[in-house]
Specification:
Keywords: Membrane, Transmembrane, Transmembrane helix. This protein has one domain. Helix 1 runs antiparallel to helix 2 (about 55-80), helix 2 runs antiparallel to helix 3 (about 85-105) and helix 3 runs antiparallel to helix 4 (about 115-155). It is mainly alpha-helical. It is elongated, with a radius of gyration of 20 Å. Helix content is about 65%, strand content about 0%.
Length: about 170
């Protein structure tokens, strides 16, 4: 049996049944589906990273274990619907985004020989990456809210466990 919470939230679930279709991502699909799509996207990127191991080996030293850990947490979140995995996933995602921003800032200081076109392409790709990261953050948050509210509703229901029952 896995742990249910990393920390117990103090809020209460919405009244009524908690349904997956109540939690949507920005594209109108359910948050669980959107989170699953991003997880599949991560798996594809991991496969390409493994293929690229022979091309750019120094990138994998940090990214490979982190990517595997994030994928495992995401799969466990989808499979078990336990808030524990989503809470750890969220913490690591925030740390990862901070590290990416710091590394981008560090790499940006060596721009002496970059042309205007290259700068423009890098700026456009940076904006697209930021939009994708924010969208992923929104999808992850909505999926976490679904998992959290679902678990709170389960815990709120009266349980017959622990009572002696005669068959």
């Amino acid at each position: 049996m896995t742990q249910i919470w990393l920390w117990q939230p103090s809020n209460h679930p919405p009244e009524g049944p908690i349904r997956e279709d109540q939690y949507k991502c920005a594209c109108g699909l359910t948050a669980k589906f959107g989170f699953t799509v991003f997880t599949i996207f991560d798996i594809v990127l991991l496969v390409f990273s493994i293929i690229g191991l022979f091309i750019v080996p120094f990138l994998l030293a940090f990214q490979f274990p982190l990517a595997i850990g994030m994928i495992v947490l995401a799969v466990m979140s989808i499979k078990t619907l336990r808030p524990f995995f989503m809470q750890i996933y969220g913490i690591i995602y925030i740390i990862e985004m901070f590290a990416v921003c710091q590394s981008a800032n560090f790499r940006g200081k060596d721009k002496q020989n970059i042309t205007v076109i290259t700068s423009f392409v890098v700026a456009i790709l940076s904006v697209l990456t930021a939009i994708l990261a924010l969208w992923r953050c929104k999808v992850s948050w909505e999926f976490y809210k679904y998992v959290r509210d679902r678990q709170l509703a389960i815990e709120k229901q009266p349980s017959n466990i622990g009572f002696n029952q005669v068959a």
